Amino acid sequence: MTHAADFPIADASAVFDGLAEAYDELFTRSSLGRAQRGIVWNAMGSIFHPGTRILELNCGTGEDAFFLSRRGVSVVACDASPRMIEVAQRRKSTEAQESSVEFRMLRTEDIGQLVASAPCFDGVLSNFSGLNCVEHLRPVASDLANLTKPGASALICLSSRFCLWEIVWFALHASPRKASRRFRGAGIARVGSQSVRVWYPAIRSVRGAFAPWFRMKSLAAVGLAVPPSYVKSSAIAHPAIMSKLEKFDRAFGRLPFLRVAGDHVLFHFERAQS
């Protein structure tokens, strides 16, 4: 997401409807997108095991759901955008017909509608800033607690409040306001040709919103050395350079201070036993 205040603010589902057809080309298949997603996939692969059932929020075009399905994980993947779900269903019919993925059009704020058959999920995934479009996380966390089994893991990837890359990038481009825009905790993000309201909760705030139902086990930076997707540079995008940046993220992304300085921060929560 890029940021702008001079565009009409739209509902998040409408914004991502307009982006759905181009999303995979713009981000999923881009070198920066693959590099950042690879860091999250590494965590997903070690936490979500074959034979388990996972609930995914803001699934987009289904890239993460298909990854999990290839590893023997069953996924109920939800998104508020009808067009994103349409693209995901189309991808399933052409790329992954046998995948154990069920796509549903459902807003994150309405996830409690799934509670009739709960607790039925072994884990939860929300990747790449979907929950940054939700102002109040505590009701979502409460719904997730009702939907998950004791001991279930929740991987939540949020846009961070402090992004070192962004600060340096916009400072070098003489844009101090943009360099500090996340510090305010809320703002307007331009997605494609539209704008949507977003929030950047502090680490303590996220941890508090998920307590007491979930205990935070770890934090890791996503996009510490790997830059945000708006950084357009052929030198950075070179495969050899990108590989080194990814290795840096994997090696140092969990260190104190650095783990909260990436483009995103990856939370690993565990559902309380009672």
Features:
alpha/beta; Rossmann fold; 24% strand
Descriptive account of the structure:
With 274 residues, this protein is α/β, with parallel strands linked by helices. The chain has a single domain, classed as Rossmann fold (3-Layer(aba) Sandwich), CATH 3.40.50.150. Helices cover 37% and strands 24% of the residues. Strands 4-3-2-5-6-10-9 form a seven-stranded mixed beta sheet. A three-stranded antiparallel beta sheet has the order 1-7-8. Helix 5 crosses helix 8.
Please outline the helices and strands.
Elements: E1 2-3, H1 12-28, H2 31-47, E2 53-57, H3 63-70, E3 74-79, H4 82-95, E4 101-105, E5 121-126, H5 138-147, E6 148-159, H6 164-172, H7 176-179, E7 186-191, E8 194-199, H8 203-210, E9 214-222, H9 239-252, E10 264-271
Parallel strand pairs: 2-3, 2-5, 3-4, 5-6
Antiparallel strand pairs: 1-7, 6-10, 7-8, 9-10
